[in-house]
Amino acid sequence: MKEDLTEVVARDLSDAASALEALRNRPEMLAAIASAGRLLAESMDKGGKVMSCGNGGSLCDAMHFAEEMTGRYRNDRRPYAAVSMGDASHMSCVGNDYGYEQVFARYVEGLGRPGDVLLAISTSGTSRNILLAAQAARAKGMKVIGLTGRENSPLAQASDIAIVTPAGKYADRVQELHIKVIHILIEITERLRDPQNYPDAE
Ligand SMILES: O=C(CO)[C@@H](O)[C@H](O)[C@H](O)[C@H](O)COP(=O)(O)O
Ligand SMILES: [Zn+2]
């Protein structure tokens, strides 16, 4: 008997909706996301920048985040200072010569300045290159926003602000919540820095 694929689709959408609702019902996480957005806006107001990193799908999320900061999100506005650490030539040089663990830490050591922010994304919260980037950022006097799917993971513990989305069995569900969080972070940054784009706000 053939599987009803529309059932597969419906089940997955329901599961995703439940995960979003679970995040919505965690007041401490809503507060953490709001604080992280405020940190980003305040850093940029003072001339700081945000650097973002992740592996695999989370690197795509880190790039998505940075391009909507430098480029645009919903409406026209000035560009914001953001850079994702996904440059292939840097990754291949540092991966080859210093080891993959160092690819993001070395980027942070080269470009990070006190007052900048690192957005470190890891669904497991255990990827060594992300943890070393967080350490390098703190050593530079940067603040670390950790976006992960595991409470008490090494990344959550190494972050100034830990945003922990509900953990599903697989990384994909965590990543779906992460992209939601990323869009909210950008919206909060815009609301604080360019409120004219949000005429509905008080
Ligand atoms: O996108 C996915 C899974 O949805 C994968 O590419 C995933 O990002 C990779 O396995 C990563 O290496 C996982 O690393 P992390 O999120 O645990 O730090
Ligand atoms: Zn987007």
UniProtKB/TrEMBL annotation:
Pfam families: SIS_2. It is found in: Cytoplasm. It catalyses: 2 D-sedoheptulose 7-phosphate = D-glycero-alpha-D-manno-heptose 7-phosphate + D-glycero-beta-D-manno-heptose 7-phosphate. Residues 40-198 form the SIS domain. Its cofactor is Zn(2+). GO terms for molecular function: isomerase activity. Keywords: Carbohydrate metabolism, Cytoplasm, Isomerase, Metal-binding, Zinc. Gene3D superfamilies: Glucose-6-phosphate isomerase like protein, domain 1. Its EC number is 5.3.1.28. InterPro entries: GmhA/DiaA, Phosphoheptose_Isoase, SIS_dom, SIS_dom_sf, SIS_GmhA/DiaA_subfam. The keyword Zinc applies. NCBIfam families: gmhA (TIGR00441). Belongs to the SIS family. GmhA subfamily. Catalyzes the isomerization of sedoheptulose 7-phosphate in D-glycero-D-manno-heptose 7-phosphate. This is D-sedoheptulose-7-phosphate isomerase. The gene is gmhA.
